Amino acid sequence: MATLLIVEDDALLLDALSGQLKQLDYSVCTASSVPQAMALLQMQAVDGIILDLGLPGADGIELLTWARAHIAGLPVLILTARDGVEDRVQGLNAGADDYLTKPFNMQELQARLQAMLRRARQPAFTQASSTQGPQLTTLGPLVLDHAGQAAALNGDPLDLTQREWELLALLAHRVGEVVTRDDVLAAWRASPTEPGQAAAPLASNALEVYVHRLRKKLDASPLNIRNIRGLGYMLNRP
């Protein structure tokens, strides 16, 4: 059972949201201000945060920045009435994993929470290994060296940019499963900017460009990146 911290100063919304999440088998703790949330996080471990921005005394971004500095990998979903593009950009650039505006649909919130928590449980760029030494993933003629962030196809090194490597590693880590656009964009947001590129909001159309480029580099193999309409992408097993 995942434990969620809801940081919200609207008592009615806080009570309603807590009740609905508990019905969905989440364990819930609550805070109505940034200091209260910080104190709770120092006493109790949680699996994720639902964070309002318009809080009394201090903005929710302050809590987000503090959490990123003190609790590595803690998933944060911003839930706020601020629906401007600049607000979204600020929240995501500050380290939020997702951003949803009020009023919201409970089913959408549930889906976003599940995706966010799933990403936290399944790191994008690592492959679990029970042995010491280089962490390798082998998919037919494709070999990924996660320690060196390098890939080879039919024994020949692949020339990959940082973003292409991250995309390929995520698809390979979940080979045969659908990887959503949000999964990829969240993984990219969590990684350093490519050399020579300014930090900027990542767009969905940029993902399509990287998928196209990666398909061309895998063209000489039985591996295929499928476009799953309305969902995302899937790397077929060779």
TrEMBL record:
Q: Which GO molecular-function terms appear in the entry?
A: phosphorelay response regulator activity; transcription cis-regulatory region binding
Where's DNA bound on this chain? 134-237
Q: Which residues form the OmpR/PhoB-type domain?
A: 134-237
Keyword Transcription in record = yes
Domain Response regulatory: start-end pairs: 3-117
GO BP annotations of the record are:
regulation of DNA-templated transcription
Top-rank taxon, per record: Bacteria
Mention any one GO cellular component term assigned to this protein in its UniProt record.
cytosol
Query: Which stretches are transmembrane?
Result: none
Recorded hits in PROSITE patterns, A to Z, give: OMPR_PHOB (PS51755), RESPONSE_REGULATORY (PS50110)
What keywords would UniProt list here? DNA-binding, Phosphoprotein, Transcription, Transcription regulation, Two-component regulatory system
**InterPro entries noted in UniProt:** CheY-like_superfamily, OmpR/PhoB-type_DNA-bd, Sig_transdc_resp-reg_C-effctor, Sig_transdc_resp-reg_receiver, WalR-like, WH-like_DNA-bd_sf
SUPFAM superfamilies xref list:
C-terminal effector domain of the bipartite response regulators (SSF46894), CheY-like (SSF52172)
Modified positions (4-aspartylphosphate) are D52
Q: Which PANTHER family match?
A: REGULATOR OF RPOS (PTHR48111), TWO-COMPONENT RESPONSE REGULATOR ORR33 (PTHR48111:SF1)
- Name recorded for this polypeptide: DNA-binding response regulator
